[in-house]
Amino acid sequence: MGIANNRLSYEAQTMMSKRHMERAKQVMPGGMTANIKHFEPYPIAIKRAHGSRLFDVDGHEYIDYLMGYGALMLGHGHEEVKSAIQQQIEQDGTWLFGTPHEKEAAFAERLLRYFPSMESVRYTNSGTEANLLALRLAMAHTGKYKIAKFEGHYHGAIDSLLISVSPNEQDAGTAHEPNRVADSYGMDELAMQNTFVLPFNQYEHCEKILTEHAAEIGALIVEPLEAGIIAPTNDFLQKLHTLTKKLNIVLIFDEVKTGFRTGMGGVQNLYNVEPDLTTMGKVVGGGFPFGVVGGKQEIMGRTSPLAGFDFFADQDQTDRKQLALFHSGTYNGHPLVLAAGLATLDVLEEEMSDLLIRTEQFKSELEAVFKKHSLPMKAVGIGSLFSVLFTNKESLSNYRCFEHVDKKLRTEMDRALFQEGIYVKPGNRYSMSVAHDDEAIEKTIMAYEKVVPTLFPSND
User: Which enzyme class (predicted)?
Assistant: First the structure.
């Protein structure tokens, strides 16, 4: 079909979205408030959504596999979540107390049941905020103020972590000792200098870097599934756990993408590793702005206003010998969000198993479409999150393996699928939800069967 023709078809299908973006550009830089929502030539604008479906301003219906970048594991507008929100407002008489309330403890108790590594939790308003707090906790606990993170891992728009998330081959350095590469203008140079970049799934090289700088590094943060899809190999996570204990480095699992996506206990449950701290967001908030930091009491306890001087508490200003670790936020533990989160967990407890089975079946059916045409495609991921990758490689172990993935072809395919009513941001992961029923999956497979021969006519 070709990328140029695909683009013309896209624009013909989305004229109202195009007009919306032209309007939005007059009042917002680039027409949006989150760069991640952009793609060429412009993203579609959505008017409403329900279940697994999106409806755009042009009147078209799509099966949604983006699902709020993975946040909507129950689909759009799930009745139990809506009911919980309405009930919270009606019973409580407001949607914000600004004081402690019962749902704060109730939600924490639920999380501790699923994640044995958590002995105590704190709430934030996003995964990014959760990672900020986790870093501060680690630094306070160890007295060390440098960080180690992995190439290809995203932890939010934080100067010390927005490094080497997607470096190009020329700047990235060697595979065993990656360079620090800024992923944004305006980055703090000192923050960059205080961050070490590690290669995922290469334990010996990680051990060397961490050991050499153990006196400086207070935190090691990792997506236990790289990019939410690439699995750790050869006891990699277990070895990191042992090493960080030895070196007095706080091990942080960023399960913002993977928390509840791989099962009720996250990736740490699958691999039987208990990190010192865990951060979560997305699914756990039921589609609302939310984040969680949970972990060992000896670390988490530092946030308590009872642990030392806290300038927001009613304390004698002269008694500042011991400071509490400051953490606050007007909307932390928002009752409406916690109501949505609790309802989400209720549904997942009932439907998680079926969803994971259905996702594996869907992945197999997708791969079968390409196998029929002798084409190299892998549906890579664990749990209800995966990506469709065009590659001949037998396995993918880290970010560098994406150099062998045909990203342009994936984008062209996504454009063609879009015309058949299948929506995922070009090149993005597929986020399954309980709303993706047999009808949605069957329609998606039919779209693939129609599109694939047009993209690869020489293979028929």
Answer: isomerase
Q: Final residue of a domain: which of 283, 302, 333?
A: 333
Burial (0-12, 13-18, 19+ Cβ within 10 Å), 326: middle
**Cis peptide preceding 167, ω within 30 of 0:** no
**346 in any annotated domain:** no
Query: Quick check: 200 and 151 in contact, CB under 8 A?
Result: yes
- Name the residue range of residue 381's domain: 3-77+352-459
Asked if residue 367 is part of any domain, the answer here is yes
Considering the domain architecture, whether residues 67 and 137 belong to the same structural domain is answered as no
- The 3-state DSSP composition of the chain as helix, strand, coil percent (nearest 5) reads 40, 15, 45
User: What CATH code is carried by the domain that includes residue 235?
Assistant: 3.40.640.10
Domain check: are 160 and 287 in the same one?
yes
* pTM, rounded to two decimals: 0.95
Residue holding tokens 């105590």? 120
pLDDT, tens only, 367-420: 999 999 888 999 999 999 999 999 988 889 999 998 889 999 999 999 999 999
